[in-house]
Amino acid sequence: QVLSLPIVVIVHGNQDNNAKATVLWDNAFSEIDRVPFVVAERVPWEKMCDTLNMKFMAEVQTTKGLLKEHYFFLAQKIFNDHSASLEDFQCRSVSWAQFNKEILPGRGFTFWQWFDGVLDLTKRCLKSYWSDRLIIGFISKQYVCKLLSTEPDGTFLLRFSDSEIGGVTIAYVIRGKDGSSQVENIQPFSAKDLSIRSLGDRIRDLGQLRNLYPNTPKDQAFGSHYNSERRELG
């Protein structure tokens, strides 16, 4: 007899997300010579980072993986800790409950449900943008404000929504005549929105967007992602 790869049987599609979390955790963190069905309840955060990165690259089918600053944001999210340093997180371990049982503060979903939504959106609608490093994605709203507040009017960046599963939003700076700045966040776009009109074309439509952070003109950054508009003949 041999142990198979992990299998989960579900009776409804709404259980799919939890099933994927169970398979991922079991596949990544169980020992080869373990007692059947015994899996670690906690794993080192560094090991979790490697797993999330491999999952992201495989699912999206991209060679551009997660960066150090992405892991820092994900650690702040899963541990609900915005005071620790990157080095502090590297010494921590993450539990199954933190991964896919406990609801994120102020939200209606778990860390894995949120991350899986990002995976699905990126795979379906954002693969080329991610692979061209046009999307920062994993970054907090607060840090975006810090980055953009000193930038020229119309500077923008793209981040995955914190409040919605499977959404990407555009944050941009508006600078008043007195020099004061205000960072605005556009309502997140879902996969359904982006199937109607692509992200590139939506960025082209928005006149208030000028330069992709830090200083790339938007037509230069996204020009290859614009669709040539068809003109209807009267």
UniProtKB/TrEMBL annotation:
It comes from the Eukaryota. Coiled coil: none annotated. GO terms for molecular function: DNA binding; DNA-binding transcription factor activity. Residues 114-224 form the SH2 domain. The keyword Nucleus applies. GO terms for biological process: cell surface receptor signaling pathway. Its main location: cytoplasm. This is STAT6 protein.
